Amino acid sequence: MLMAQFKPKLLAKLIAAGRATLLLAAIGLAMPIPLQARGSVAGTLPLLGDGSAMSAGAERRLGDRIARELYRDPDFIDDPVLTDYVQGIWLPLLAAARARGDLTPELDERFAWRIVLGRDRSVNAFALPGGYFGVHLGLLAVVSSRDELASVLGHELSHVTQRHISRLISKNEKQTPWMIGAMILGALAASKSPEAGNAMIVGGQALSAQSQLNFSRDMEREADRVGFGVMTQAGFEAQGFVGMFDKLQQAARLNDSGAYPYLRSHPLTTERIADMQSRLPLGAPHSVDVAPTATHAMLTARARVLANPGADALRGWQAQADNLAPAQALAQQAGTLYGAAMAASRLRDAAQARKQYAQLQKVVGDEPEARRQMRWLGLEIELAARDRSRPQVLALGVDVGLDLNSPADGSAASLRRPDLLLQAQIATQAGRDAVLDKVAQNLQVWLVSQPQDALVWQWLASIYAAQNQSLRALRAEAEARVAQLDYAGAIDRLKAAQDRLQRAGASNASADYIDASIIDTRRRQIEALFKEQALEN
Question: What are the residues whose beta carbons fall under 8 Å from the beta carbon of 350, sequence distance 6 or more?
């Protein structure tokens, strides 16, 4: 599926704005370096057999336009725990695609390869131009294993590596790039919500685009075949592919009422199902009931809580926890208790959240990853309660590697993203200078290798603000905007920093000169990108 909207109003936004985003390049950290100029794609040889007249650079620019609207959408969510989980599956798939030669050096360098999570209960995933991918929380809530999720992501990845999207877009050469982006958004806005979609159609093109944007049967079979090879080489079980097909087939038999839009864009055929079954090892069963691990059960519960955050739904978790049967599998109990504890915390009922968390500790086994997920939830509950003294808050940092006696770069290198962001929350609540300094260094170490991580940039800005380093805070806020392709917002933050410098006068001439130089250089770089963006309209 090329695109499934987070909200129907996205098309209206895109058409009203008429703005494009440019190629996002790596951003420096302590001293931001110039964004790499986007190289000319003229004369670039097409990939062997891709049949596409659209260059990789042009496809990336189109993807940037669409991704920018997704980042602005209210349904966009960057939950550190779920993002960490998805990335743990996604990165091995990318590595396998490179090793197999499916992901060529040209596409690897030019495309984004970024996953955008959407707070939507429907079961859906989709590939976008330029290496952007969308995953709905509803999909995370129904898969029974990492292997099943890997099958979906491997399939979508293969649509992009095999240049299926560019082949489809090349059929619409008469359309301007931003109108193609609007068609991609509008076609599925109309399919999901006809009234909303019809209200946003421009010249009737959104409705007619649906048939033009659907992958062909040959493309689906190729994505199945390549995706199967990618996921198995990445170390995932082949049964996950067939297991996911079984889920979709069951949904189709039940006359899908809209909860599975993935079925509409990726229709199952007996040929596709038989092909995947034939690829299983000899003697392997075609259908196996997968028992989720405690880790997977807890993350599935987290996706369900975040996808349906209404008060009634959150209270429903408590009823489920109260009705747990002793005969239920421990993993299933862990998922229910995790969801109940998280839901109670979001209802600001710290006592109930702690009660459910205490029960969760009794059913989670010794598996390291499950215990790590449990500890992260426990820290979230305590930080949300805000009834601890500053020393008590600081003591929580031990669970996420916040050790003031270890070097910043050494500790940060072994930390995962949820650890770092929990550290940031602990530091801002504790308010101690030494802790703030330590966490700021850890976040900077992370951003050296992950310069497009907008949420980490935003937390770094909060740490700087807590240290009364307003210029650094504004610069970090600007980089967070750039990471989400919002160049106008980034320029606004840098202008605010320059205004503050002018008001400060010459109180610290040496420091002001350095900060002023960095901010001025960075503003000119981003303004150049913003102007180029305007020209593409």
Answer: 344, 381, 384, 385, 387
